[in-house]
TrEMBL record, chain A:
Protein name: Branched-chain amino acid ABC transporter permease
The organism's place on the tree of life at top rank: Bacteria
Pfam families xref list: BPD_transp_2 (PF02653)
GO CC term (a single one): plasma membrane
Iron keyword on record: no
GO biological process: amino acid transport
The organism of origin for this protein: Paracoccus alkanivorans
Parts of the chain that traverse the membrane: 12-39, 59-78, 98-121, 141-160, 188-209, 221-254, 266-285
Record flagged with keyword Protease: no
Family: Belongs to the binding-protein-dependent transport system permease family. LivHM subfamily.
Compartments, record wording: Cell membrane
GO molecular function: transmembrane transporter activity
Membrane topology: Multi-pass membrane protein
Alphabetical UniProt keywords: Amino-acid transport, Cell membrane, Membrane, Transmembrane, Transmembrane helix, Transport
Lineage: Bacteria, Pseudomonadati, Pseudomonadota, Alphaproteobacteria, Rhodobacterales
Automatic annotation (TrEMBL), chain B:
Membrane topology, as annotated: Multi-pass membrane protein
Organism listed in the record: Paracoccus alkanivorans
Subcellular location: Cell membrane
Domain ABC transporter stretches: 359-594
Superkingdom of this protein's organism: Bacteria
Alphabetical UniProt keywords: ATP-binding, Cell membrane, Membrane, Nucleotide-binding, Transmembrane, Transmembrane helix, Transport
InterPro entries with a match to the protein in the record: AAA+_ATPase, ABC_AA/LPS_Transport, ABC_transp_permease, ABC_transporter-like_ATP-bd, BCA_ABC_TP_C, LivM-like, P-loop_NTPase
A GO molecular-function descriptor: L-isoleucine transmembrane transporter activity
Example GO BP: L-alanine transport
Transmembrane segments: 20-37, 43-64, 76-94, 100-119, 126-144, 174-191, 222-246, 258-283, 303-324
GO CC terms in record: plasma membrane
Stated name of the protein: ATP-binding cassette domain-containing protein
From TrEMBL, chain C:
Family listed: Belongs to the ABC transporter superfamily.
Keyword terms of this UniProt record: Amino-acid transport, ATP-binding, Nucleotide-binding, Transport
Protein name (database record): ABC transporter ATP-binding protein
Domain ABC transporter: 2-234
Native organism taxonomy: Bacteria, Pseudomonadati, Pseudomonadota, Alphaproteobacteria, Rhodobacterales
GO function terms (MF aspect): ATP binding; ATP hydrolysis activity; branched-chain amino acid transmembrane transporter activity
A biological-process GO annotation: L-amino acid transport
SMART domains from the UniProt entry: AAA
Domain of life: Bacteria
Length: 295, 599, 234
């Protein structure tokens, strides 16, 4: 029983980690309607920035977040402005897919050029210390990630419902032409949204860096899971992504223990395919987000 | 006829351009074979063998990713299956020449199982699903060590000779790679120039219009995927024998899958020769970077790939082929004198007045959310009759059409169609309706934009003629009747709205339907053309075709219809002779408001 | 006030409008009449900045607005109530109306505007906190019109306001349009319901196959043989 609880706790913690990566991805998808295949590389860039700031300036990684988050916001905004926006009117979807795939490939290999294939360990500053929570032990850093993910979900909900900018973002997502007719600058909204989505993963990267070593390909693993989480949670739904992430975290931990650690991914992606094919609107979705399937 | 196309240029250089392109292509192919033989350098051989393999893989990918528009980023699954099948069988003493067909067989089965449920996913989600399948295969290949050798990989047993596809010299490997590339190019060329290719492109461009033209969109995509998977698997077998070592990370690699797709994109996605050009241009650059700069510049070639990919989608989304086609003179309208639509000759049997019923509609109900869009609609269509369907915008006319052609399932009620033999059938899908001879147009025109006018009509003509030559003949005949004769070689996207409306009708007419559903084909065309269209429809009717026409142009409805049905808020509010229906007070009120009815 | 001069427009290589010109003076109610697909909606989309004309100019009070983005044109005081309502489906009626007052000039007095439009559409007051998607077609059209009015525009453009509505609701919609015009707002309206529209309008244009073929006072158009035959069915 204790082992089960420990694995459950590990799963929830892992889920928090997946959530903080996936929230930005689902936000960008829900509003801009673009699947950002370079999202994992945004995470990777953020982790290397954290690594550089913590080793270079001897900062605590959480303080480095104050610089990493705005930097990722700019990276996201630039991506939308100069890569996605020119392609918005493109007739074929493959153009947008290849655009972000190209960005992903370029960023990953740029990191390989600069840092080499070796891993980069961000100084831990004590966040790897174990905390006893009742019958289970978790890492301090994992708790902070979970807290940050919850805060991000609540904060984004509040922002979207209660602020003028948030409402304008929702309006643009629901009906772009009508939003323009209200006087909303839809292009600016998209740039800001992409920036916010990237900033979310920027926050995640600063929190994850002390727990996981950075490498040029670190994003690939996380982003594939993030895609799973986003589809599971209902595309574009921030809260859905959070619960989807927790669920996948638990599945990952459980299957790693009970089935075999080398088959974890097969289980996760198997579930992903079943959901994608049988219930493509996701487990926690609203009726809105069905644009990706034929009736 | 000035309103049909916006550009009409004429050039005599087309043939010359085509000849230049053929020479260019032959030069490229000859170069791939002769340059390495001439230079006789190990490294040069390696580069050109790699070019052949990537060009072939990319060409095979293009059948699915380009023609069918299903963006697979997991094509390495098939390549890997072929590789493992070849190596595993070779180690059991079975020649890879057999192994490659075994691999191809497995790949086809996997392709069909994997693709079938994924086809309802659009663009990025199809891509995501293919990535997920690739990951599952990679993880499974790592897990089942006893078969695959797991992460440590597998060496092939070094039996040298043609029967083992393993050689000391490079020349035989180049010959095999080159031959396989030719096979892939030939397959791509044949598919593109047969009915299957037309159907694939039509399905990619407008799935619903393709379905209405009787295309079994799932079947044609599965055929494309099968061919593509089989070719990829065979290439995987050869490449594995060439590399003499395989491991899951290399055989089921996402990066590798992306590269395959990338060559096609850069060369020109959906074109026959684009993938070849993409590979010829990019493989040498990256192999040189890898060979010359080596470990010092690890990541450089990937970085360049990524940048090139972004630049290509931003500035030349049609790839190298797109650039080349701009150099060639534009396709031009043919100089033909005929222009106005020509009335069809009545069928020998002549018109059967108020013939037997050919379509029966009973108690149709349809709800969208809380909205009752079709409320207990029932009527009968007779042979050789024109039934006008009118009603204010939003009355539910198009929804009704969707149910009469299988695009929408009614909540209640039935649509039955009498087949050619005289038995009543209950078709359910667009394909079944089309097979029974029900053709429809769409209110919002749905041209296959990337195809010419002739090819658009051919998609309809293929319904009756399986051979390209016959279909082309039938399409030209239909085009002539519809007054589209001079515009056969123009891209559909360069027609005006009036021209597109006419093309929409022509595509359906080419199916030689027995029942024709026309959704506002006269909207937005001028008075003279309305007159002409009315004559055309009457002549179609006189060949024995039954027509249901949604129309807003009152004058047309009055002079055209044998009978009129008025729909308002999803209900039939009047039915009968055109004259009597229009003077019905309820109809006037629905159309013009109360004041007018009382005025 | 608003001048459209010789515009050509279309989508892709498809031409919809050819050499279309029109003029709307302050306080006028002007209508564009024509068959489905004649290019009426395209004309309004060009004025609203949703579509860039290929040639020709559009001016507001003498200022060239041809190349401005849609949101800038809203800021200058031209609001389009689009065909098919185009509400924000998952936002409440109140949020939809508030989005109407997004433009800077209107945001300051949005609560005053809200009470004004609720006076005009008392039905909406009961529905304020429902999601827009849950309303009936007629109510949705009311929200669309009210949302347009929340912007307090100088010129309010209506695209097919009676589309898909029951006759009784259509009459209500036209009453509202008359009230809007009476309050001093300039109105440009595109409608399939030609009879109703010409009754409300001062002046009208006839658009056929992408070209303006007729311009006259509304009363004259109502009496015109061609118009009566082609659009009134008599």
């Amino acid at each position: 029983m204790e082992i089960f609880l420990q694995i459950l706790a590990n799963g929830v913690m892992l889920g928090g980690l997946f959530a903080i990566v996936a929230i930005g991805l689902t936000l960008i998808f829900g509003i801009v309607k673009v699947i950002n295949f370079a999202h994992g590389e945004f995470l990777m860039v953020g982790m290397y920035l954290t690594f550089l700031l913590t080793t270079g300036l001897d900062l605590h990684p959480y303080i480095a977040a104050a610089a990493v988050v705005p930097a990722l916001f700019v990276l996201g905004a630039l991506t939308q402005r100069f890569l996605i926006q020119p392609l918005l009117s493109a007739r074929d979807e493959h153009v947008q897919i290849f655009a972000t795939v190209g960005l992903s490939t370029a960023l990953m290999n740029l990191a390989l050029l600069i840092f080499g294939a070796d891993i980069a360990n961000t100084p831990v500053h004590g966040v790897r210390s174990q905390v006893q929570l009742g019958p289970v032990r978790v890492l301090e850093g994992q708790i902070w990630i979970l807290v940050a993910a919850v805060a991000l979900v609540i904060g984004l909900q509040f922002f979207m419902k209660r602020t003028t900018l948030g409402r304008a973002i929702r309006a643009t997502a629901q009906n772009r032409a009508a939003a323009q007719l209200m006087g909303i600058n839809d292009r600016l909204i998209y740039v800001l949204t992409f920036g916010i989505g990237a900033a979310c993963v920027g926050l995640g990267s600063a929190l994850i860096a002390p727990l996981y070593p950075a490498s040029p390909t670190v994003g690939t693993y996380f982003v594939l899971i993030a895609f799973v989480v986003v589809v599971l949670g209902g595309l574009g739904s921030v809260a859905g992504a959070f619960f989807g992430a927790i669920l996948i975290g638990i599945v990952d931990a459980m299957s790693g223990f009970y089935i075999g650690s080398d088959l974890r991914e097969a289980v996760v992606f198997g579930i992903f395919l079943v959901i994608l094919i049988l219930k493509p609107s996701g487990l926690f979705s609203t009726r809105l987000n069905q644009s990706h399937v034929s009736p | 006829m000035t309103d049909i196309a916006t550009t009409l240029t004429s050039t005599p250089k087309r043939l010359a351009g085509r000849r230049a392109a053929t020479f260019g292509l032959l030069a490229v192919l000859a170069g791939i074979l002769l340059v390495p033989i001439g230079l006789n350098d190990e490294f040069v051989y390696h580069i050109f063998i790699t070019i052949c393999i990537f060009a072939a893989l990319s060409t095979a990918w293009n059948i699915v990713g380009g023609y069918a528009g299903q963006l697979s980023l997991g094509h390495a699954v098939f390549y890997g299956i072929g590789g493992y099948a070849g190596v595993m069988l070779a180690n059991l003493g079975i020649s890879p020449w057999f192994g490659m067909f075994a691999g191809a067989g497995v790949a086809v089965i996997v392709a069909i199982i994997v693709s079938y449920p994924c086809f309802r996913l659009h663009g990025p989600f199809f891509a995501l699903a293919t990535i997920a399948f690739l990951e599952v295969f990679r993880v499974l290949a790592l897990h089942f060590k006893e078969f695959t050798g797991g992460a440590t990989g597998m060496m092939i047993s070094l039996n040298i000779g043609w029967e083992w596809m393993v050689f000391r010299e490079r020349l035989p490997a180049l010959v095999i790679a080159f031959g396989m590339m030719l096979v892939c190019l030939a397959a791509a060329w044949v598919i593109r120039n047969r009915r299957l290719g037309f159907y694939l492109v039509a399905t990619r461009e407008r799935e619903s219009a393709a379905k209405a033209a009787g295309v079994n969109t799932v079947k044609v995509r599965l055929m494309a995927v099968s061919v593509s998977a089989a070719l990829s698997a065979m290439l995987g077998t050869f490449h594995a024998m060439y590399l003499t070592f395989i491991e899951p990370e290399a055989m089921f690699s996402l990066e590798f899958s992306i590269q395959i797709a990338m060559f096609a994109l850069i060369g020109g996605i959906g074109t026959i020769w684009g993938p070849l050009l993409g590979a010829v241009l990019l493989v040498p650059i990256t192999e040189f970077a890898r060979g010359a700069l080596g470990a010092e510049a690890i990541g450089l070639h990937g970085f360049v790939y990524g940048i090139v990919l972004m630049l290509v989608v931003l500035f030349m989304p049609n790839g190298i082929m797109g650039l080349l086609s701009r150099l060639r003179p534009a396709e031009s309208a043919r100089k033909e004198t005929e222009a106005a639509p020509v009335a069809a000759e009545p069928r020998a049997s002549g018109r059967t007045d108020a013939g037997e019923a050919v379509m029966r509609v009973e108690g149709l109900n349809k709800h969208f959310g809380g909205l009752h869009v079709t409320n207990d609609v029932g009527f009968t269509l007779r042979e050789g009759e024109i039934l006008g369907l009118i009603g204010p915008n939003g009355a539910g006319k198009t929804t009704l059409f969707n149910m009469l052609s299988g695009f929408l399932k009614p909540d209640e009620g039935s649509v039955s169609v009498r087949d050619a033999v005289g038995d009543w059938q209950h078709p359910a899908s667009p394909g079944e309706f089309a097979a029974l001879g029900v053709g429809r147009t769409f209110q919002i025109v749905q041209p296959f934009a990337a195809m010419t006018v002739e090819e658009n009509i051919m998609v309809g003509a293929f319904h009756r003629h399986a051979q390209v030559g016959d279909a082309r003949e039938a399409a030209r005949e239909t085009a002539r009747r519809m007054g589209l004769g001079p515009y056969l070689d123009l891209e559909a996207s360069s027609l005006t709205i009036g021209g597109l409306k006419r093309l929409e009708v022509a595509r359906v007419m080419a199916m030689e339907p027995r029942i024709l559903l026309l959704d506002e084909v006269m909207a937005g065309i001028n008075q003279t053309d309305v007159r002409r269209a009315v004559d055309l429809m009457l002549s179609i009717r006189d060949t024995g075709v039954s027509i249901i026409a949604i129309e807003h142009v009152m004058q047309a409805v009055m002079s055209l219809s044998d009978r009129v049905i008025v729909l308002n808020s999803g209900q039939i509010i009047a039915e009968g002779e055109p004259r009597s229906v229009v003077s019905d007070p309820m109809v006037i009120e629905a159309y013009l408001g109360k004041e007018f009815a009382n005025a | 006030m608003l001048e459209v001069e010789h515009i050509d427009a279309g989508y892709g290589s498809t031409v919809i409008l050819q050499d279309v010109s029109l003029r709307v003076d302050t306080g006028e109610v002007v209508t564009i009449v024509g068959a489905n697909g004649a290019g009426k909606t395209t004309t309004l989309r060009c004025i609203a900045g949703l579509l860039q004309p290929r040639s020709g100019r559009i001016r507001l009070d003498g200022q060239d607005i041809t190349e401005l983005a849609a949101h800038d044109i809203v800021d200058l005081g031209i609001t389009l109530i689009p065909e098919g309502r185009q509400l924000f489906p998952d936002m409440t009626v109140r949020e939809n109306l508030m989005m109407g007052a997004y433009r800077r000039e209107a945001r300051a007095c949005q609560s005053q505007s809200l009470s004004e439009v609720l006076d005009l559409f008392p039905r909406l007051a009961e529905r304020l906190d429902q999601p827009a998607v849950s309303l009936s077609g007629g109510e949705q059209q009311m929200v669309a019109i009210a949302r347009g009015m929340m912007a307090r525009p100088k010129i309010l453009m209506f695209d097919e306001p009676s589309l898909g509505l029951a006759p009784i609701i259509v009459s209500q919609v036209f009453e509202v349009i008359e009230q809007v015009a009476a309050s001093g707002t300039t109105v440009l309206i595109v409608e399939q319901n030609v009879f109703h529209t010409l009754k409300v309008a001062d002046r009208g244009y006839v658009l056929e196959n992408g070209r303006m073929t007729l311009e006259d006072s509304a009363a004259a158009l109502l009496a015109d043989d061609h118009v009566r035959q082609a659009y009134l069915g008599i």
